[in-house]
Amino acid sequence: MSETATTSGPLIHPGEWHIHYDYAVGDTAARFFTELRDNMKVYARRCPSCGRAFVPPRAYCERCFVKTTDWVEVGPEGVVEAFTIVYEPFDGLPVPPYAVAYVTLDGASTALANFVTGVDLSDPEVASEALALGSRVAVAFAGKREGMITDFHFELLGHNK
Amino acid sequence: MPTKTAIVGVGQTGYRFKRTDVTIQELAQDAAAKALEHAHMEMADIDAFVIGVAPDALIGIDNVDRWIGQALGVAHRPQLRVNTGGTTGAAAAQAGYVHVASGMFRTVMVLAADKVSETPDAQWVLNTAMDPIYERSLALNAINMCSFQAVRQMSQYGVTERQLAAVAVRSRRNAAANPYAHLRDPITIDDVMSSRYVCWPLKLLDCCPRSSGACAVIMAAEPQAASSPNRPAWIQGMGATSNTIYMGDKMGPGRDTDHADWDELAIAAASAYERAGITDPLSQIDLAEIYAPFTCTEIAAVEALGFCAKGTGGAMGEQGMFDMGGPMPVNPSGGVLSANPISATALARVAEAALQVMGEAGEHQVPGVRRAVATGIGGTLQFHTCMILGDDA
Amino acid sequence: MNIQSRVAILGGAQTVPAACRDDVRLEELVFEAAEAALADAGMERGELDTVVMAGADQMDGRSISSMMTACPAGAYLKDEIRTTVEGSYAAVLACMRIMSGEFDTALAITWAKTSESPYDRVSTLSYDPFYERPVGLSDVLDAAAVASTFPGSKSELADAARSVTVKNRANGAANPRAFLRAPVSRELLGDSPYVAYPIRRAEVPEACDGAVAVVLGSKRRAESSPRQAVWMDGIGWATGDYGIEAAPPARMDTLRAAAERAYTMAGVTDASREVDFAEVFDATPYHEIFAYEALGLVPDGAGPAFAVAGGSELHGDLPVNPSGGLQATNLRFASGLGRILEAYLQLGGRAGPVQVASPSQGIAHGATTFPAQSHAVFVMRNY
Fold it and tell me: Residues 164 to 203 of B: which have CB under 8 A from any C CB?
């Protein structure tokens, strides 16, 4: 039996949801993650109709509604398109502060999200200036890679608007 | 031609942080009873039900709509759940509208309820809405996705943190006159500017609260609506647009729309305006109830609705354009920054717009309203809805 | 009723069902079905006015799963809405949208990829957290409890259940679109252990992964469609009590209410005479037997005898689940739209080896499991 809280206030029954899922990433994302893990390369997937190179890779183009076909290597550098610095702790999410940015890697048509390192986040004003849109970053790979998006992160190279 | 359809009754519970005195069923019952009373109708008069419930995990009961249906005592009647994230309540209203407009039903009740305060894990739940394969492990949630919009607005249009703050100050000023609002204490620009950063550049007072509450709306076909004791709020037009979940697709050189803007809302509004015969929104619409959970999102919305040019929403707001008494009052109710019962939030925008058209908004009534617009937003700022309510069919 | 426009199905498709589609992620499975349905209808994505999806978050392992599936379903920068009841409710809402005159074309789509999710655990989360969830109810337990309320002979009912499973698995063996293609014998079923009395393990079909989509259009649009239109002339749906029904649950009063609405709308006065075939929800064979009676295909009490006598067989008086139903293709949550697709193919003469002889009117039925069963009934015609 779960413990029931009985105070002079309301009666509350505690509850938890634990649902395990095994997400199949599919053949397209599997190729992307394998290249990250084994060869430390970032690949985009190109739409044969509009020519856009999607990273993270998509098996189909949402606009043209056709299957994508070719792989194209992108990066390893890119430009910051948007960022945030998280200062508030949220249950189940990382301990703040941390910075997350969307970056268009060189050769890609779309921006890719990941954590950014190499910035002192203690002062929001200084940190936000360092990360300003247009800043250049480079992909930096983890030593131990598991075929996950967190096999890499972005490192700030310096401001270059 | 669609069967002419109007909102003839509205019920809201009032939005508060916690409601430990009632279950979610009882909250929904309360809103439904209020809507019936307002419409001078009985439950037996309602032909069908649309129930809006957003992520189940925020409430902790899968398919809670069925539990709510039991509380209404409407077993064996048509009931349909709509679930589209933040837009849920507005999408439920659009689904309710076609129940009547199709000619299939004379009346429909659209109902939405939420008790977000029963989980401390709301942002974690919203993180599980992100792509589990590419993005979930990057700690994305409902707050930082709006931060990405704000930094692009600041960079592209020179939007300032003070302009963001002005949105919050106006919302809370309006909420003081709305007894249903959750946060009703007025705040100042300095209060917002000195509140702590949550996800830079958004500060605590740029963000909506988490609220519990329920909202119900009754719609009726023309003959019933025209004989309602209330002034009907006719549904003159609606539109909705969905975009990709991938925010990065709205930033790179290959983008069709920009994450800074709400081009999707502009598409939805164009559809709603065309149906309603609106060509000059600023002169033909009297007020807007905008689903703006963070200050930056309202700036994108007023531009997308055609009230001011792209890139000018922040400055126009700071100059008072959207104040009560201004050229286009926005969120007389205090909006989402003053109350956010997630499943019901977008329906509350429709309900408030309807009350304004009915002339029954109370202390926050805008004088002489003939037409109002209500919007909804959901997903990674990817789902947009728009509905026009007016005093003639 | 003052319907603005008659609604037709203009095309449809289902992905090839498989136990586990780990070669694609969920969104790619959705794209496969949408792309194939549009191709079947001879249409481009640009011709769609709206996309109506049916999906359930916990089944999908994604909160607000429509965020991920909207665009692969064809909704990029288009009108789109998602319902969470059961797959067939995508068609309910899509039909109403077209009937209103506000939309000319719609894609209705649903999916199941339960190889990724713990179905039994998820199904228990639908129960009331205070009174029912702690008791450990699940949909199979509920189905067993419902079967116990059937007023007739228990042994006759169990015998009829075996007939239904044998029939549906035989139909599935002949249907190239089915998942389980091996027939089963009465002996095998009789030897199968009980999951929850009277339901045996072999009467609960293995689930599969797949997505189903149909393209719908207004009367005006149907007139220029390359394929024979199949009309959605009657639609009814209803949701039952969350707790124990007042009437014996095996009567399926909620299904009766849904059917009555659909029949009234379509002008069907005696389904047993007017309907040529039915595709129904048969998560267990008991569901199918109860549906015979609730849908008015046979008089009350005659369901078991009808099944045993072969009346619902492929070449019987009134074929039920010529596709093999859920007993052969169990797309959890999504199966109702699968029933609609199979009925559409029957009425277009495209059902292949399981084609019923020249049907002109059929029924499709989608339903949820318990608690508070929801049922949707469609009367479909090719004239």
Answer: none
In the numeric block, which tokens belong to residue C372?
């508070």
A24-81 tens-digit pLDDT = 999 999 999 999 999 999 999 999 999 999 999 999 999 999 999 999 999 999 999 9
Which one of A15, A26, A62 has the shortest CB-CB distance to C25? A26
Evaluate whether residue A2 is within a structural domain: no
Does residue A2 register a pLDDT over 60?
no
Residues of A with CB under 8 A from a CB of C: 13, 15, 17, 19-29, 59-60, 62-63, 65
The yes/no answer on whether domain B5-120+210-220 falls in CATH 3.40.47.10 is yes
Chain A contact for C136 (CB, 8 A cutoff) = no
A133: CATH: 2.40.50.840
Q: How far apart are CA B182 and CA B254, in angstroms?
A: 41
**Looking at residues C307-334, what average pLDDT do you find?**
97
Task: Find how far residue C50's CA is from the centre of its chain.
Answer: 22
DSSP C277: E
For residue B85, is it left (φ>0), alpha (ψ between -120 and 50) or beta?
Answer: left
**Which CATH architecture is the domain C7-118+207-223 placed in?**
3-Layer(aba) Sandwich (3.40)
Question: What distance lies between CA A110 and its chain's CA centroid?
Answer: 13
> Distance (Å, rounded) from C-alpha B341 to C-alpha B325?
27
Give C-chain residues touching B57 at CB under 8 angstroms: 57-58, 63
CB C311 within 8 A of CB C303: no
Average pLDDT of the residues in C221-244: 90
Query: Is residue C136 scored above 80 in pLDDT?
Result: no
- pLDDT for C123 beyond 90: no
Number of structural domains, chain A?
A: 1
Look over chain A and give the mean of its residue pLDDT values, rounded to a whole number. 91
Contact C81 B94 (CB under 8 A): yes
Q: Please tell me the predicted confidence (pLDDT) of residue B275.
A: 96
Q: How far is C292 from chain A (nearest CA, A)?
A: 36
- What is the interface pTM, i.e. ipTM, of the complex? 0.96
What's the pLDDT score for residue A18?
Answer: 78
pLDDT (tens digit per residue) in A131-143:
999 999 999 999 9
**CA A76 → CA A46, A108, A117, A131, distances in Å?**
17, 11, 15, 18
| Separation between Cα atoms, residue B339 and residue B207, nearest integer Å | 10
Interface with B, mutate which of A13, A72, A100, A102 (most B CBs under 10 A): A102
| Residue ranges covered by each domain of chain B | 5-120+210-220
In a domain, A121, yes or no: yes
Higher pLDDT, A88 or C305: C305
Distance between CA atoms of B172 and B186, rounded to whole angstroms?
Answer: 5
What is the token pair recorded at B217?
């709306």
Exposed / middle / buried, residue A2 (Cβ in 10 Å: 0-12, 13-18, 19+): exposed
pLDDT at C370: 66
Per CB-CB distance under 8 Å, the chain A contacts of B120 are 91
Question: Residues 35..64 of C with a Cβ closer than 8 Å to A: which?
Answer: 35, 38, 44-45, 58, 61
